[in-house]
Amino acid sequence: MFHRIIHHPALAKRDLRMLMADAICYANGTGGEQVVFGLLVLQVSGTSWWVGVAFALYFAPLLIMGVPAGAIADWLPRRDLLRGIQIALAVNLICVGLLIGSGLVELWHILTMTFISGCVRALYQPVRLSYAVDLVGPENAAAGLAFVQIGNRVGQGVGALVAGAVMYRWGADTAYGCLALGHLIGFVLLGRLRTVGGVPRHFRTSLRRTFHEYASEMVNNRALLGLVLIGAGVNIFGFSFSTALPELATGRLGGDAQDLGYLQAARAIGGAFGVGIFALWSAHRNLPRLYIGIIFGFAVGLSGLAISPSFEAAITALLVIAAMAALTDVLSQAMMQLCVADHLRGRAMGAWMFSVGVSPLGQLEMGGLAAALGVQTALLANAAGLIMCGAAAMILFPRLLRKGKLA
What we know:
Helix content is 82%, strand content 0%. It is mainly α and 407 residues long.
């Protein structure tokens, strides 16, 4: 398997390998940041409700900025945008660390900085995803996105482990400083990419026209709209499990910050393994049918996490959940980019961001259920929600399933 991965045609592209390295640096920040602010908010507030609020603020900008971010990704050079975003993230993390180190930090400070980080990260995703297809071409789109996801998951695992260990030994302020360093390294790596990326000049229009084309595509492209709706449901019921992890780790499993880091790292390992396998045979599979199957697998994983009797069982369940979560991302990203014209791919990723942007509803729902009824009930309820999403996809996508392609 490893031999086939390293000799894959997509990885023959030097710039894609560099983008994977940048994805590791970027995700080091995201994976670690979720460990630090999740546990920090729980410690300061004493309830999972505020953890849900923090995660909601972190992901809310995906909904607010999905449309403009997708348009900007089709309007400006993508490599340069990515570099600017890495610097902005590093500065924000450094500011949070300094505030914590001063001893003046309050809950509203953490929530505000978390929201700012979410705003900047919301712009990064559609730019990177459309840039990845710039580097490998539409024929290798699914595999290229999968390889970038591998880098993303590896970075999340490293960031979660580092943040958990550093926070446990030296505090949250030092942990934020370490995460900022990763973004600065990513900035340097992006400067070495040769491909600028973006829409060819003859397809570029005014920003106003770019938004108009975006809206028209969302209204008239039924495949894209269907993927957005199903993706929104998956993000509400599936990805909100992260809100339950701080209480699960420190409460029922009796762990600490380092143990929460291990749980987050398991997410990264499972995701990297899942998309690694997918990259080997994605070009020969029915993507819509596979997507629906993965949604049901996601539900099984959440159910397993809900009833896990031990730390080891929880790790195993998270490996499955992470693989399913990563694959729903890759599959939806690939299908959305393949169902639009090439010059609209950035805006397609803006549509994907919109579907991801509803996840704060899930974070609030998970936090509220966990606080009122317990973590186990909250996870089982969301597993049932995923089953409904899979069933809805089977009803909404009959043409996609019948033809085995997006049309």
